[in-house]
Amino acid sequence: MTELATQELPQHQSWWGETFRRLAAGKLNLFCLAVVVAYTMLACYGEYVYFASRAADKTPTYNIPDIGVKYLPPSLFRSRTAAVEGVKPTAWEHFLTHPLGTDGLGRDVLQRLIQGTRIAFRVGIITSLIAIPIGVLLGCLAGYFGGRVDDFVVWIYSTFASIPGLLFILAIAMIAGQGEKGVYLGIGLTTWVGLCRLIRGEVIKHKERPYVQAARVLGLSSGRIMFRHILPNVFHIVIVTFTIRFPAAVGTEVILSFLGIGMKGEPSWGVMISNARLQLWQGIWWEMTFVTLAIFFLVLSFNVLGDALRDALDPRLREDSTS
Q1: CA atoms within 13 A on the CB side of 63
Q2: Domain spans of the chain?
Q3: In 3D, which of 159, 124, 78, 75 has the Cα closest to residue 244?
Q4: C-alpha pair distances (Å), 277 with each of 118, 166, 233
C-alpha cells in the first residue's frame, strides 16, 4: 500500500511552470510568442545600430538618401537585369540588395522597418513604466484605505477618463514638446486609469481575506501588507494589462507620428505611413504594405498572448483544472 502511494504522488510544479504549461497548450499561443520574440530581437538589433551610429557620430544608414535607387521594388518583384549598380548581380546578391525595396529617397525599407520596431518597443515599454506604477499605486491606496482616499482616487481617474483620450495625449505632447519625450509622457500619463480600476477592485476583495487579517493582527504596517502580501496576489492583472496596453501604446504613437506631432527625424511606423500614402497613386505600394503588416502582426500577437495569459493566470481556472 505504501509503495503504491509513493509511486502515485504528483510532482510539485512551480507557479510559473504551471503558467507556461497552460500557455503552451495552444499552438497559436506558441506561434504568437515566437513572433513577439522575433520582434524583440529586431528591436534589440535596431538599438545596436542606433547607438553605434550615435557613438560614431555618423548619420545612420537608414536615414541616408540615395536618389539613384529610389522607388526600387522588393527583390521578388524586380528582374535581376535591373541592377542597382549597373552590374547584373548573383541571385543571392539580388535578394539581399534592398529586399523590401526603397522609398522615395532611396532609403532601405527593411532597415527603416527595423528602426520602427525599435521605436515601437521603446514606446510600449517606457510608457508602461510610467503608467503601470501610477495605476498600481493609486489602485492599492484606494482599495486598501477606502473612505476619503478612495473617493479622491476615484475622482482623479473619473476626471481623466472623462477627457477624450487622444486629445488629452495631444495636449500633454504639445506641452512637453514634440518628439520622443512628448510621446512617452503623453501616452504614459493618460493610460493608467483602466489598471487603477482593476487593482482597486481586487484590493478591496483581498483586504478582507484571512491572510490580510492575520497580517494586521501581527502588527504589520499598511504599506507592507499592500505591497508584500496583497500585490503579489493581484500581480497577474499587471502582466495581462501590459500585454494589452503595449500594442495600444504602439498604435497611439503611430497616430501621433502620422499627424506630425510624434517622433521627429526617426523612421517611426507612423512617419513611414505618412510618407507612403502620398506614393500609392503612383503604384508605389511596398512601403505602406510592409509597414501595415508589421503593425498587424505585432498587435495581433500581443492580443492573442494577452488573452492566453489571462486564462493561464486566472486563479478560478487554475482551481478548476486542479480539482
Answers
A1: 15
A2: 27-64+107-322
A3: 124
A4: 22, 22, 47
pLDDT digits (tens, 9 = 90+) for 160-194: 888 887 788 888 877 877 778 888 888 998 889 99
C-alpha cell at 266: 526617426
Please state, in angstroms and rounded to a whole number, the distance separating the CA atoms of residues 220 and 37: 41
Q: What is the pLDDT of residues 40-79, one digit of tens each?
A: 999 999 999 999 988 888 888 888 888 888 888 888 887 7
Across 39-184, where does the E strand assignment appear?
Answer: none
pLDDT at 197 over 60: yes
Residues in the chain, overall count: 323
Q: Taking a C-beta distance cutoff of 8 angstroms, is the pair 67, 105 a contact?
A: yes
Place of cell 525595396: 101
The CATH label, of 3.40.50.970, 3.90.76.10, 2.30.38.10, 1.10.3720.10, for the domain at 27-64+107-322 is 1.10.3720.10
Count Cβ atoms below 10 Å from residue 125 Cβ, excluding itself.
14
d(CA 46, CA 103): 19
Do 67 and 106 form a contact (C-beta atoms < 8 A)? yes
The predicted structure's pLDDT at residue 119: 93
Residue 288 CB neighbour total at 10 angstroms: 17
Contacts of 68 (CB under 8 A, 6+ apart): 84, 106
Q: Is the CA virtual torsion 95, 96, 100, 103 positive or negative? A: negative
According to DSSP, the residues that pair with 108 across neighbouring strands are: 102
Could you give the CA distance from residue 171 to residue 179 in angstroms, rounded to a whole number? Answer: 13
